[in-house]
From TrEMBL:
Keywords: NAD, NADP, Oxidoreductase. The keyword Ribosomal protein does not apply. This is Glyoxylate reductase. It comes from the Eukaryota. The keyword NADP applies. GO terms for molecular function: glyoxylate reductase (NADPH) activity; hydroxypyruvate reductase [NAD(P)H] activity; NAD binding. It holds the Pfam family 2-Hacid_dh_C. GO terms for cellular component: cytosol. Residues 67-339 form the D-isomer specific 2-hydroxyacid dehydrogenase catalytic domain. Belongs to the D-isomer specific 2-hydroxyacid dehydrogenase family.
Length: 452
């Protein structure tokens, strides 16, 4: 599987230009881009085919002069959280602006209050990245519990024949997992973790009447009753440094923290101190307080897994995100309703019911197998090395991985371990394939496809 996304093979080219000859740039709707995010970089030609892109990042003019030159014509702006912040001051320089389009789900980089005051519409990509983010969260969790990145380095260095046995990791099944933010991503994450035999509880702004998980009114209380704390909530002024000394102290020396939300939700200085001093057992992080700068004290720790903010991104999801961004822009310029106004997300539908398992090693082996699969598809171990070597600030973009959901997974041997792997992968939306009898198929209660 190659790294480049080819929009021609994904059906975007015909969709965007309607199959007709390209229009002169001057006749196309104007789209302002201050600095290009990854989506724009990957699909720049698709944007240029549809819009007269006002490229502030290529202009010799200072930004204020560039904005002044286009102040009366720029009606829409495309922005990405890491590279562009939409502030009230910026909006003042764009009096004609009517639409802000984020190329991701998060809108914490946009001053929503200022947009509301001006009547500026805001659109995001809805839930297009939520499944991949949930997958990545599980992958990070297994990576830190089972030491996947360290195990990979152990083998690559040739240490196995010399040092013998690699240190044991920790079991996932039976762990109490607290989810901070049971929204779209949090719900998908909970479903996946149930497939591993975890006991899920949560904290959210309000108790979810439809959720069957235990609700804790405060994050401190959630941490007290959790072995693992996973951050899925959005960043607001109320959630900034929500994970502080009190929460980490409640999580305790055996606790694990996973952050797939936003970096500033965690008091990073305090977290680093807890990890260095062994006051919590470990952490897996895809986001940081001052990206792409990561605290150097983390680089030498064996109890952390580090990733360069790639939890949401797969090649497949980027193709879907492009369609949504283009759809929102098309809707705006044709005076139609936006496809995904900010904070309007899709709904999750349960796929399977999960039973319990009783064998000693089979659950851990199945967990490890799924962890390895996510690791190789989403490049978690390589991402950890990328961050530890200090390459993120230099190289900026890390290569995309591949979506887990929807993949056809063939299992050779649907015995005790194989059936557990099947259960877990079914929760990720995989199509499980194996040669089995009708009786076995019925007993598994899984969407399996017998092979001929």
């Amino acid at each position: 599987m190659g790294q480049e996304i080819n929009p021609q093979t994904n059906g975007f080219h015909h969709h965007l230009n309607g199959g007709g000859p390209p229009l002169p740039a001057a006749d196309l709707p104007e789209l302002l881009v201050l600095r290009p995010g990854l989506l724009y970089k990957v699909f720049e030609q698709e944007f240029l085919a549809k819009f007269n892109v006002l490229k502030a990042f290529e202009s010799p003019l200072p930004l204020d002069k560039f904005l002044l030159a286009h102040a009366q014509s720029a009606r829409a702006i495309l922005c990405e959280a890491i590279v562009t912040r939409i502030t009230a001051d910026l909006l003042l320089q764009l009096p004609a602006l009517e639409l802000v389009v984020a190329d991701g789900t998060g809108v914490n980089h946009i001053d929503l209050a200022a947009c509301r005051r001006r009547g500026i519409a805001v659109a995001n990509t809805g839930d297009v990245f939520s499944e991949d983010t949930a997958d990545y969260g599980v992958g990070l969790l297994i990576a830190v519990l089972r030491r996947l990145s360290r195990a990979d380095a152990f083998v690559r260095r040739g240490s196995w024949p010399v040092l013998g046995e690699f240190p044991l990791g920790l079991k996932l099944r039976g762990k109490r997992v607290g989810i901070v933010g049971l929204g779209n991503i949090g719900t998908k994450l909970a479903k996946r973790l149930e497939a591993f035999g975890c006991k899920v509880s949560y904290n959210s702004r309000t108790k979810k009447q439809s959720a069957r998980y235990d609700f804790h009114p405060t994050v401190v209380d959630l941490a007290l009753h959790s072995d693992i704390l996973i951050i899925c909530c959005s960043l607001t002024e109320k959630t900034r440094h929500l994970i502080n000394d009190d929460v980490l102290n409640a999580l305790g020396m055996s606790g694990i923290l996973v952050n797939i939300g936003r970096g500033p939700i965690v008091d990073e200085k305090t977290l680093v101190s807890y990890l260095v001093e062994g006051k919590i057992a470990g952490a897996a992080m895809d986001v940081y307080e001052n990206e792409p700068n990561v605290p150097s004290k983390l680089f030498g720790l064996d109890n952390v897994v580090l990733s360069p903010h790639r939890g949401a991104f797969t090649e497949e999801a980027f193709g879907d995100a492009l369609k949504i961004v283009m759809g929102n822009l098309d809707a705006f310029f044709s005076n139609s309703p936006l496809l995904t106004p900010a904070r309007v997300l899709g709904k999750f539908r349960a796929r399977i019911d999960i039973g319990a398992w009783n064998f000693v090693f089979s659950t851990d082996t199945a967990d490890y197998a799924v962890g390895l699969l996510i690791d190789v598809m989403r490049k978690i171990t390589a991402a950890d090395g990328f961050v530890r070597r200090g390459l993120w600030p230099l190289a900026s973009e890390y290569p995309l991985g591949f979506k887990v959901g929807g993949k056809r997974v063939g299992i050779v041997g649907l015995g005790n371990i194989g059936s557990k792997v099947a259960k877990r992968l079914a929760a990720f939306g995989c199509n499980i394939r194996q040669t089995i009898t009708s009786l076995q198929l019925l007993s598994m209660n899984l969407p399996l496809t017998p092979t001929s």
